[in-house]
């Protein structure tokens, strides 16, 4: 029986990962550490909290003494670090907390792993560390050897954490791996992110804000495919290695907006072009050959199925996201989108 410590488990991907582990590994325990920022939601973990194999700590990863106490009490066999400030637009408004959580918080987790017998550590990173690709070169993809070249304070903080993880591997022998995944979508994603924002606004007949001309391209992956990839890397990945995760599913933002309108039976006239994001990356596209070749991973959810499941989930879980949309998020939304 193993104990896996998941940070950021009250957020979107972390929560999906918690459920993935509990369902797949009946003899594993899952310990979740999350400070419950605006993006963390304990109600997301309601089913997990009813499972005796699951423990939750409201705990900031920047707090060394607190993290040490969790390690002492739970003696984890592995740590997966999802905890982060994750929204590019917020990082443009207020970069500092991104540096603190994403870099210094990751360092605290790595120090704790070393101090407790070199606990296996996995850093969840992003394809955004590679910067962007041109729109007119569909032949170009990010490989693990693509140089880091960041555009936003968010991606810079994630790249810094990746470099620190690699430094800890080489200098202290930390048993670590890193994964860099493309854009995720699926249940429990906070409605500040593009796809759930479109769904929530569509259902309220509100304008759908599309940045610039809507021609930016993202490589969308269903969240469970990401969870399966992280789990494979944790159990079978080579120590010290970086693995890209993505599904050859490139879509323009405008096409996503049109698709959501169609899926919900709403008019495309809701789509509203707004001022572009500063430094907006043009295109992300992952080459997943390494994880496919070494670990046999391939995405299993076709985009058409994943987006249908996601829209259905938001329709069936209105109280979950309506509570968010009416809280702190409302002030953020007004700051970000009014007069844009
Ligand atoms: P999210 O914003 O939904 O969740 C982040 C979680 O971390 C929240 O529950 C929050 O409360 C918690 N957290 C934040 N600061 C903390 C701190 N100091 N201490 C403890 N907990 C803290 O993010 P997400 O979309 O689920 O992303 C999870 C990870 O995956 C991040 O590291 C992100 O960089 C990475 N990632 C995300 C995507 C994507 O498309 N969403 C793609 C690739 C990689
Ligand atoms: P987002 O979900 O914020 O993810 P990321 O910036 O990490 O890729 O945005 C996805 C794409 O959608 C990105 O190109 C920015 C664009 N976007 C909009 O056009 N309008 C919006 O309101 C948001 C939040 C994003």
Shape: globular
Q: What is the correct CATH architecture of the domain at 3-188 and 220-248 and 287-302? A: 3-Layer(aba) Sandwich
The number of strands is: 13
What percentage of residues falls in helices of 4 or more residues? 40-55%
Binned strand content? 15-25%
Count of alpha/pi helices? 13
Contiguous runs where pLDDT drops below 50 for at least 5 residues = none
Query: What's the end-to-end separation, in Å?
Result: 52 Å
Describe the largest sheet.
7 strands, parallel
Strand order of the largest sheet: 3-2-1-4-5-6-11
Question: What do we call the CATH topology of the domain at 3-188 and 220-248 and 287-302?
Answer: Rossmann fold
Order of helices and strands: EHEHEHEHHEHEEHEEEHEEHEHHHH
Provide a short characterization of the protein structure.
The protein has 340 residues and is an alpha/beta fold. It contains 13 helices and 13 strands. It has helices spanning 12-24, 46-49, 64-74, 88-93, 96-115, 153-172, 194-203, 223-236, 253-264, 289-295, 303-316, 318-325, 328-337, and strands spanning 3-7, 29-34, 54-58, 78-81, 120-126, 176-181, 184-185, 208-211, 217-219, 221-222, 242-245, 250-252, 271-274.
Describe this structure in words.
This protein has 340 residues and is an alpha/beta fold. The chain has a domain at 3-188 and 220-248 and 287-302: NAD(P)-binding Rossmann-like Domain (Rossmann fold). Helices cover 44% and strands 16% of the residues. The chain contains 13 helices and 13 strands. The chain has helices at residues 12-24, 46-49, 64-74, 88-93, 96-115, 153-172, 194-203, 223-236, 253-264, 289-295, 303-316, 318-325, 328-337, and strands at 3-7, 29-34, 54-58, 78-81, 120-126, 176-181, 184-185, 208-211, 217-219, 221-222, 242-245, 250-252, 271-274. The protein has a 7-stranded parallel beta sheet, sandwiched between helices. Helix 6 links the parallel strand 5 and strand 6. Helix 5 (96-115) packs parallel to helix 6 and helix 7 runs parallel beside helix 9. The protein is globular and about 60 Å long. The chain starts with a strand and ends with a helix. The mean pLDDT is 97. The site of thymidine-5'-diphosphate has 12 residues, from helix 7 and strand 8.
